[in-house]
Amino acid sequence: MGFARIDRRSFLAGAALLCAPAANATASAAPRVAAVDWAAAECLLALGIAPIAIADIATYRQWLPEFQPPPDTRDLGSRAEPNLELLAALTPDRIFLSNWQRGLAPLLQRIAPVEVVTIVDARSDAMDNVREAFTRIASSTGRQEAASSYLSAFDASLAGSSRALAGVASRPVYVGVLHENGTQLFLYGKGSWVHSLMLRLGLRNALRAPTSAFGNALVDIAELAAVPDAVLLYLDQGARTRRAERALRASTLWQGLPMVKEGRARTIPPFYALGGAPSIRRTMRLLAEALENAPDGHRHG
């Protein structure tokens, strides 16, 4: 049976009573944490902590396959408007948010202590933010040793991907998502960890347009012609991508792009561009595989 919806004023009035900590809780018990954003969720799972609840869990399972939550993990609904009544009834010890959800903090603090994890911030490097976020989550949950091991493996993966890409020709690369209208696409650029990761892998980002606060830009298909030697890697988001591809097959502009005619526009599996360290580790592998296996000889020699 689902939880009845109540107005938020009534919810806040009773939240303190609903959220009283259990008297028999022990210091050794695993922390009961909830993740309203996927970045924190995947980091917790990578550290060996299963959140009791995650927002929009069905989409999480599709986009972040590396660290899957247990089947009994509760679904908090929308990441923008999580189910507060359910969250209160679950009595978490701590609730994790990403900084883009900071506006939810006053409401959620009525339920449990809130920890805001910063991923994308125009004032700092997104890759550095992700590493700091992972360390903070580990510290707040007592998983520092697990974090140290994971970050060592992360660094090894980054070094390995860099070596794998060292022989790839220095074509500029676009990474993004096709818009369903078949005339535009979102591309990742400065401010995103996708851009920071590309630089660390020795890749050149082909995007020249200014980016949003999230590090992406909505551009017209025609703008891709400005960098005719580029590679385009676009995320395969299932039905949404199929609809975009159908529209593009009928587009003479798209079909005339050198990257399309020469097989340099291709799909890669989806990743969460606002995710944490596990998402970056997955993305570095996806980029390396896509560019190593490029169909038209993008390698030196």
UniProtKB/TrEMBL annotation:
Main location (coarse class): other
Signal peptide: 1-25
Keyword Ion transport included in the entry's annotation: yes
Domain (Fe/B12 periplasmic-binding): residue spans on this chain: 32-295
Protein's cellular compartments: Cell envelope
Record-given protein name: Iron complex transport system substrate-binding protein
Keyword Transcription: no
Any one Pfam family match given in the protein's UniProt record, by short name: Peripla_BP_2
GO cellular component, one term: outer membrane-bounded periplasmic space
GO biological-process terms attached to the record: iron coordination entity transport
Keywords, alphabetical: Ion transport, Iron, Iron transport, Signal, Transport
UniProt family annotation: Belongs to the bacterial solute-binding protein 8 family.
